Amino acid sequence: MDAVSRWLTLRWRMVDLTAPLLALLARLLSGASTRWLDCQPDSCQRVYFANHTSHLDAIVLWSALPSAVRAVTRPVAAKDYWQRGHVRRYLARVFNAILIDRENIKVHQSPVDLMLREIGDRYSLIVFPEGSRNIETEIGEFKSGLYYLAKKRPDLELVPVHIDNLNRVLPRGEFLPVPLLSCISFGAPLWLETGEPKAHFLDRAREAVRRLKEI
Amino acid sequence: MDPRTLILVGGVLLILATATTVGQFLKRQRELGINPALVQQFNSRIRAWWLMCSVLAAAFLLGPASRVATIIVFGLVSFWALREFVTLTPTRLGDHRALFWVFFLFTPLQYWLISADKPALYTVLIPVYGFLFIPARVALAGDYKRFLERVAKIQAGLMVCVYCLSHAPALLFLDLNPDDASGFENARLLFFFVLIAQLNDVLQYAWGKLLGKRPIAPAINPSRTWEGFICGLFSSGLLGMALYWATPFRPMMAAGMAMVIAVMGFAGGITMSAIKRDRGVRDYGTLVTGHGGVLDRIDSICFAAPVFYHLTRLYL
Predict the structure, then answer these.
(1) Long-range contacts for A207-213 (Cβ within 8 Å, ≥24 apart)?
(2) Which residues of B touch A164 (CB under 8 A)?
(3) Which domains does chain A have, with CATH numbers?
(4) Inter-chain contact B83–A177, Cβ cutoff 8 Å?
């Protein structure tokens, strides 16, 4: 029993050590500079929503946060992808990811409910509302999850994040990165207006991300 | 360390300290009416020089390992400059694998060949083997759109940021003086080269501000004028002559070398301006916010290094 618990603590320590190392590696590789525009890093409960162009998006966004904020921020990721193989499962644990089942969504187990249950009143989320990685230059339509998150928890700050150039560092379908320079911009938080229609809100959120590219 | 190296390094540190004091003074004296943007530019340039100078000095002071340390420093600078260059250059998905090898094979290999002192190989690695490899790898990826243009861009980045710059640390391997086992003679030559290239940038800029009337290529960079270029050229020559004791050259030769550095530095500056102008950015630093543009600081060194290297070899 003792050996098992020792082994478990060892594994937990490894997870604790891997996270900052991976964050550093991701930062070096992506040459990411971080801009906080009309928004300051804070450990209050937030939903960071960003455009999705590369596998590195979540880790680079996560590592762009100050470590105190990072400790309470959890990326949302696809279960089918991140449960395949030991490495991915390990990584998902390192980043304390919330894994969402994309294949069989049940009524009483909707992704939004799961996210809200997992974050409680402590954690923040990183979501990519486009659903999957986008190969077009334009940001794709946002899925409705963000709207329901905002509706069920109106107290969450929704922070738009634009990730620039990371799709060239590690494009879709590639596994070797090219260390170019990228840029992460955090914009002013937004909230769901009372009575705002879903489509309108999602357009507004998408526009908030897109606008950050031009500042 | 021998006295000549000490005087050279000490003199530069003294100048830098003075310049820093002046810069900080100007920053606090708003009422003098000097453009604050200009003061900020001056201060950021000085910061870059402190960094350059301390890195070079630290690399020199490492003793027996100093050559390797200097090469590693230049290799990292190349790597970063190449990052800026390729980030600025639009590439397509089909270039990804070729770019990977450019960053992780050709760049380290070039510097490894420099450190192994293999001039026959490092002078052809990128112009020949890189030239053959890049188009073939891009073709293998199967994307033929604007093929020659894309290949040329990658090759140009590799040539400027890696091949040309690597000739600066290659100066450390020249047989300047058979009696000098410490290598300080070579270290001083490299220091002289970087110093003249950097000061020439400033001299051309300052003369241009003072006397400049006729821009050389107004569409590319209106602040580069004939007056600035010619006055900068001659003042760099005088400066080179004044520093001849730090080099293996005689006074007139040192002046000539400094003027060659000045001409090549100008060529590098205006070439990089043309690329930036085409891409619609002001400098490589603003390309991705928060990064100081390394390429902006070293464009003159990149262009001058191979010419200075070859002329020094001819002179020996």
Answers:
(1) A208/A160, A209/A49, A209/A50, A209/A51, A209/A139, A209/A160, A209/A161, A209/A162, A210/A51, A210/A139, A210/A162, A211/A187, A212/A37, A212/A160, A212/A161, A212/A162, A212/A185, A212/A186, A212/A187, A213/A162, A213/A164, A213/A185
(2) 288
(3) 2-214 (3.40.1130)
(4) no
